[in-house]
Amino acid sequence: MYTTIPHSHAKLYGMTDLVAVARSLCSSGKGLLAADESVHTATTRLASYGIAASPEMRRKFRDLFFGTEDVERYLSGIILFSETLSEKGDDAKLFPESLAARGIAPGVKVDLGTEPMQESPQELITNGLLDLPERLGAYKKQGAVFTKWRAVIRIDGDELPSTVALHENAKRLAHYAKEVQGAGMVPILEPEVLLEGRHGRARARAVIVETMSTLFSVLDELSVDKASLIIKTAMALSGSAIAKIDSPEEVAEDTVAALLESVPRQVAGIVFLSGGQTPDQATANLAAIAKRARSANAPWPLTFSYARALQEEALAIWKGKEENVPAARAAFLDRLKKVSAALV
Fold first, then answer.
1. Which of 137, 186, 203, 325 is at a distance of 20 to 30 A from 155, taking alpha carbons?
2. Active site residue 210
């Protein structure tokens, strides 16, 4: 296991040792809150709980989680959306400043979303490289110390993902990583193999291997430093359209095997997305994966980077009402404790 460096000791904002920053994000027992929902996604998420979205309600949505007492015991970092970097919590402090003061590294999503590929219209390609260097400079000045870029990999029988989609998404992920490291920040690379589909767990495992192998081949071509990047990945799960619930042990076996086959040992850490799982499923599967990884002597630290699996219970209580904030925060903290305990 890597020795991690506390943010307070690492002087996070001035640090140029990206390897140490990357490893600190994968500190034992801690993970990431993915709070990087775009305006559209946040609006949809809030509406599903009967909450009418607005810029102020989105700010309150963020503050509900960021302002919860003691989250620094379970979170090493939080991935923000770009608008959140310039917003303030109810404590009147900018979110990046208040998070960093508590030892939580502020990060930011830097891709600009997806669009259909011309060569394969059923698949998606991620945009955001054209003005990335300028945006990275601005985000760093606002306090971000790490970033995230998401690619979307769709499974459809043996036809998808196509080779062209895998390679183009890998190229963009690699160029993104190179730019981010050059700007003095840690890149999180998220090639998400989607849960949607009629595929079995074995097919998901095979696609994770193919996706990661393609990605690291391109990263090597660009001489991207693997020791100062983090991989964010889906678990190997049966597709949601076949209504099969895999056991945690099955998920762990195929997920860890896929990663051992395709992810180099130099990588600073691997974080898992919850990808449509319920909070209990995401927690149980993470616990089984952590256990399996230990028995297999996996070379990298593993942790979580969850969004809905951490937020769902709290949002159902909050409903956008101020009087519900204490109970919602208690539910959020309780889920964080469970997910953190799953790692050990």
1. 186
2. no
